[in-house]
Design goal:
Largest sheet: 7 strands, antiparallel
Number of strands: 62
Distance between the termini: 49 Å
Structural class: mainly beta
Mean pLDDT: 92
Radius of gyration: 28 Å
Shape: globular
Helix content: under 10%
Strand order of the largest sheet: 18-19-20-21-22-23-24
Low-confidence stretches: 1-23, 713-719
């Protein structure tokens, strides 16, 4: 009997797990693309924050990895054509430094991460190892990374392997990792365990690379800000080496077919060559160079990256150097004429293809490029790579109350982006004035952090913040961002301006930081806060009762409330802890229906609510699997249509970080699912769709609304049925193994949606039924099909349309 009961329980558990998988909702990333990209079915992709390192598997060159300075690891499995953000589970810090991949096993990856500005995470910095291509990581060497943004924000290759310990089909046994102002470490068991420090790198403030000899199995080279170092004994006893001029040795290349030939660059200086294994070097290319890169299988093919738009390639071992050919970018959004058009400088990395002499992939600044003709022409290759997104404060995303297609994102580093198409594509640069304001000293930087649309249907008035992080001014546009006017200037008028909102019932009235406008944002007056509170700033408004606003003082000790649009204020809470965690940004959300209820956090940095009398704790942190004392609640959002739906986000990377409650906080569901574990910067609910938007420096990610509250298609909810038939381009494309196909029907139709091979043979029937007018989405799994070009066809009554898709495995 007992056995029978256990079998029933096991069966039910299996069924439950299957149901969980079937109904699990997933996040989707919002691409940054222009109108011309959208109209040409281009999937788009645009990064912002810079990579620090790039690595390519020697014997599996389709696998390429990037480490991003605030975004952990990125991966391409098709030679750099498309990119995906890895899940980064267990990577407890997102601040990527050097990265390297095994030459035989393309899923064995190492990355170094620093704690950067996240002081609480110092105990988790060091070297991490992944055996599944970056989705799961393990800290294998905890040590001081000593990251300094003023010195280390550049390409560095501080992890390497000894190719002499690499057997075909096997993981490489010997690995090295170097850290500035620290030392050199070694592993002899494919990176599972690491030695204590084998050589000191104290007083070497920058380590540019660590490199092994291609054949002797014992010689190690290290390039630092103090020069070139060498060890002849597996990393022990590093000593200064060669007769290079004094300076920073930023790169080195040893000819694997003739190890007496070595090239090296002096950063911002010339290229040098040795023909006697590095004992003596001669200058062979004068200039201001950053790095030399050699194709290991074709050593006569080299790339010399310059510092000032002057990069070269050679096909004959340096006999003739040719300038890089024309670099083309994705069309639109000002990319063709912007600062991303060159491959040069410290913020550039290049990886060659050991199986193709003319193929290389590079990043420069925050763009990814690819060449298939050895550098004669170069094209942007950043499909899927995205990071141009909001990430700081919840009000950095704003939705037009009357137009569901109109959304603004206020980005820390690149200012404001507007879409009038729900994100299908974005408008051109929406602030042509920002750079001149910055140059004139009127603002500290061009970043935007919060804003709001005037709540009048058809109005093009927007008020937003702009400046340098914690010191911003206010600006205003009357033409949807085509031109702007600064409406506050000077140090006395600057503020955090975390929260900006028009009064929904009085569109002349604007709340903005420590100021209020009564003339649609044309001018602002400082709020007369009570003198006993130090420099408060508004942080929220109750949507149902918009005369009720909340403010927090600069010391983050007091919560104040006004019931009369900021004319008079009363102390609402002084809990005995601060309304902030690791920085000065408070965590706060006002309940959209209950003017007495707010959400912030408790003394432990966990989520809590306050109703004017009682604090209620929600114990989110214990659900994350994060580290006690390190992980903290970073963001909270409440659905403006259903105040019982609450979202909470936590800061620590590597663990579950987004949770949802649909019963006012009684129970919580982990909805991190397929979201990269980067921790949460900011979250906000789209009032038109109920979807949760998550801003980050690896993209804007969107999570579906709970179906019991938002059960129908967005267009149906807005009573907007399609007026024509249409078959959309599948996404992603190329793909492996799954893709999504969307189509729309203008009337009830007999629908056939099928996939065909190049011979016209039907390989999969996806839909064969009668469907009502509306928009539809079909997921296609091609795991049983081989790589290649396929077609999919929609037949609906008399309408027929074909599109092409590409499977890459």
């Amino acid at each position: 009997m007992k056995k029978y009961i256990l079998e029933i329980i096991a069966f039910l558990l299996i069924q439950f797990s299957i149901i969980s998988v079937v109904f699990a909702q997933e996040w989707k990333v919002l691409p940054i693309r222009s109108k011309i990209e959208y109209e040409n079915n281009m999937p788009g992709g645009e990064g912002e924050q810079h990579p620090h390192s790039i690595a390519r598997s020697l014997n599996n060159p389709d696998y390429i990895y990037l480490s991003q300075d605030v975004g952990g690891c990125w991966r391409s499995t098709d030679g750099g054509v498309t990119w995906n953000k890895t899940l980064d589970k267990g990577l407890y810090l997102p601040f990527g430094q050097s990265i390297q991949v095994d030459p035989n096993d393309p899923n064995l990856v190492f990355i170094t991460v620093s704690y950067s500005w996240f002081q609480q995470g110092k105990s988790n910095e060091g070297l991490y190892r992944s055996t599944d291509g970056g989705d799961n990581w393990q800290l294998v060497l905890h040590t001081d990374v000593n990251y300094n943004s003023s010195m280390h924000r550049r390409h560095r290759q501080n992890i390497t392997y000894d190719v002499t310990t690499s057997e075909p089909g096997m993981k490489t046994q010997r690995w090295y990792a170097a850290f500035p102002n620290n030392g050199l470490y070694r592993s002899d068991d494919d990176g599972n365990t690491w030695s204590d420090k084998i050589s000191s790198l104290a007083n070497h403030s920058i380590v540019y690379f660590v490199q092994t000899h291609p054949s002797d199995g014992k010689t190690i080279y290290v390039g630092t800000s103090s020069g070139l170092l060498k060890s002849d004994s597996l990393g022990y006893n590093l000593q200064a080496f060669g007769d290079l001029p004094s300076g920073e040795v930023s790169s080195m290349a040893v000819n694997p077919q003739n190890d007496s030939i070595i090239y090296a660059t002096i950063r911002n200086g010339s290229l040098y060559k040795s023909t006697n294994s590095g004992e003596n070097f001669d200058m062979v290319m004068w200039g201001t160079h950053s790095k030399i890169v050699m194709n290991p299988s074709y050593p006569n093919k080299m790339y010399l990256i310059g510092m000032n738009k002057s990069s070269f390639y050679t096909n004959n071992g340096g006999g003739i150097w040719n300038p890089f050919g024309q670099v083309t970018t994705f069309p639109g959004l000002g990319r063709e004429t912007g600062w991303r058009r060159w491959i040069d400088g410290d913020l550039s990395g290049v990886v060659t293809n050991a199986q193709d002499e003319n193929d290389f992939v590079a990043y420069s600044r925050s763009t990814i490029f690819k060449s298939t003709d050895g550098g004669a022409s170069i094209g942007e290759s950043a499909t899927g790579w995205t990071g141009n997104a909001w990430s700081w404060w919840c009000d950095a995303a704003e939705f037009d109350r009357f137009d569901s297609n109109r959304i603004a994102f206020f980005n820390n580093d690149v200012g404001m982006k507007i879409t009038l198409t729900s994100g299908n594509y974005f408008e051109e640069d929406t602030n042509q004035n920002a750079w001149s304001w910055y140059q004139e000293g009127k603002i500290g930087w061009v970043g935007a952090y919060s804003g709001d649309f005037q709540p009048i249907e058809g109005s093009q008035v927007i008020v937003a913040s702009i400046g340098g992080y914690f010191v911003t001014q206010l600006m205003r546009t009357e033409n949807n961002g085509q031109s702007w006017q600064l409406v506050t200037e000077g140090e006395d008028n600057s503020d955090y301006n975390l929260f900006i909102a028009f009064h929904p019932d009085d569109p002349n009235y604007v709340y903005a930081g420590n100021k209020i406008s009564t003339d649609e944002g044309k001018s602002f007056s400082k709020i007369n806060f009570p003198a006993e509170y130090y420099d408060p700033t508004i942080v929220g408004m109750c949507e149902a009762y918009p005369d009720v606003v909340f403010a927090i003082d600069r010391n983050r000790e007091y919560l104040l409330r006004s019931k009369d649009r900021g004319l008079t204020w009363k102390e609402y809470a002084k809990p005995g802890w601060l309304f902030r965690t690791f920085d000065s940004i408070p965590i706060f959300a006002a309940d959209p229906e209950d003017s007495n209820k707010v959400y912030t956090f408790d003394a432990k940095g966990d989520l809590a609510s306050f109703n004017g009398n009682t604090w209620t704790n929600f114990n989110i942190l214990e659900k994350t699997g994060g580290h006690e004392g390190i992980n903290l609640v970073r963001a909270v959002a409440v659905d403006p249509n259903y105040s019982n739906i609450i979202y909470a986000g936590t800061i620590e990377a590597g663990v579950s970080c987004v949770f949802r409650s649909t019963d006012s906080g009684e129970t919580w569901e982990d909805i991190t699912n397929n979201l990269p574990r980067m921790g949460i910067g900011a979250i906000k609910v789209n009032p038109h769709t109920g979807e949760l938007y998550r801003g980050s420096l690896n993209g804007t990610w969107i999570y579906p609304a709970p179906e019991e509250y938002y059960p129908t298609d967005i267009k149906e909810r807005n009573n907007k049925l399609p007026n024509n038939y249409k078959l959309e381009q599948n996404y992603p494309n190329p793909f492996n193994p799954s893709t999504v196909i969307e189509y729309q029907l203008s009337e009830m139709s007999n629908v056939e949606l099928a996939v065909y091979n190049m011979l016209g043979q039907k390989v999969k029937m996806l839909v064969n039924e009668t469907q009502n007018a509306g928009k539809y989405q079909e997921k296609f799994n091609a795991s049983e099909l081989s790589s290649g070009i396929y077609f999919y066809r929609l037949r609906a009554n008399n309408f027929v349309q074909n599109r092409k898709m590409i499977i890459v495995k």
